[in-house]
Amino acid sequence: KVCAKVLLQIFSLRYNVELKGLDKLKKGDPEGGYLFLPNHPTVMIDPLFIGTEVMTKMPVRSVVVDYMYYMKLLNPLFKWIKAVPIPNFSNTTNTHKMRRMDRALDE
């Protein structure tokens, strides 16, 4: 939580971001949890804003496409934040990938 607050302060030097509706989220584990969908996930700014803000209120697990999760430079960060690697469905979808995703999300 401390890291999240520090990141938010750093981001506020460059970006003016306002997240609305966080007060409506219930703490604890709602059935199925919450899903936050940033609209610019590839540049990682939106996920960082949303993740750091929500992280100050409740536990957050990021979902990361597996090819990014296993990049040498990013993998330690993703492990540290306990991100969940899921298969890349942009090119193909098959039962093997679906089973891998189900297992990852069940952890």
Short overview:
By secondary structure, this protein is mainly alpha-helical. The chain is built from five helices and two strands; from the N terminus they run ααβααβα.
Structural key phrases:
mainly alpha, globular, two-stranded parallel sheet, 107 residues
How much β-strand is present in the residues? 5-15%
Q: Average pLDDT value?
A: 78
Number of strands: 2
The ordered H/E elements are HHEHHEH
Coarse structural class: mainly alpha
Strand order of the largest sheet: 1-2
The number of helical runs is: 5
Distance between the termini: 22 Å
Which sheet architecture does the biggest sheet show? 2 strands, parallel
Which stretches are poorly predicted, pLDDT < 50 over at least 5 residues?
none
Helical content, roughly? Answer: 40-55%
Give the overall form: globular
Radius of gyration: 15 Å
Please give the oligomerization state of what you see: single chain
